[in-house]
TrEMBL record:
One of its GO terms (cellular component) is plasma membrane. Belongs to the CcmC/CycZ/HelC family. NCBIfam families: ccmC. It comes from Brevundimonas viscosa. Keywords: Cell inner membrane, Cell membrane, Cytochrome c-type biogenesis, Membrane, Transmembrane, Transmembrane helix, Transport. This is Heme exporter protein C. It comes from the Bacteria. One of its GO terms (biological process) is cytochrome complex assembly. The gene is ccmC. The chain crosses the membrane at residues 54-79, 91-110, 116-139, 151-169, 197-218. Coiled coil: none annotated. GO terms for molecular function: heme binding; heme transmembrane transporter activity. Required for the export of heme to the periplasm for the biogenesis of c-type cytochromes. It is a multi-pass membrane protein.
Amino acid sequence: MFGLANPDRFLRFTRPLTPVLWVVAGVLLAAASWLAFAAPEDYQQGDTVRIMFVHVPAASLGLMAYGALGVSSFFALVFRHALADAAARAAALPGAAFTGLALVTGSLWGKPMWGAWWAWGDARLMSVLILFLFYLGYMALRASIDDEQKAARAAAVLGLVGLVNLPIVKFSVDWWNTLHQPASLLRAGGPSLTGEFLTPLLTMMAAWAALFLALWLTAIRTEIVRRRVLAIRTRRALEA
């Protein structure tokens, strides 16, 4: 793992891996979509239950991406490793997209279930909104500082602070009385979903996980190349 911290080794290792992840993500997405549409209607929610197959993976990947951003920020801040900083920066945009999608699909799901698009008093909704704002703040902070090293340090601190919100998002429905339903997958008694809903949901979550990894690795590789091109241009400008 630490050997891959070298940018050259990382590029060599991920060159064949990245297209494989894209193919796996595409195949799993196609299979999961077919399973989701083939699943029966829920006896209470009807066809609205199919929003689950988008909402749950999006919310899970929003947390996963921020975890990757936060851990990468730690290594970038403590060990001043350029590849860790590139990994943190690369996780921000897809993580924000997944979290934003979770908020939108949650509102679409909440309207027929709760009778409202949004519930300000729901701890899960508010903590996910705060997670989304951390993503936006991270990207805005990096874009607002011209010096890349200063921007990286400031963004890394913000990324670490945002990690505090992850357990709040996860356990908010257990700690407070909220409208949001409790966990359906990771629970003491096992998943509460029947197989006809559990199989497409797990397949979709695996597909989105592969998609995030493909996006993340591609973005890291692009960031490495961008920094190298920038360094070459800067050196040539100084020589000129």
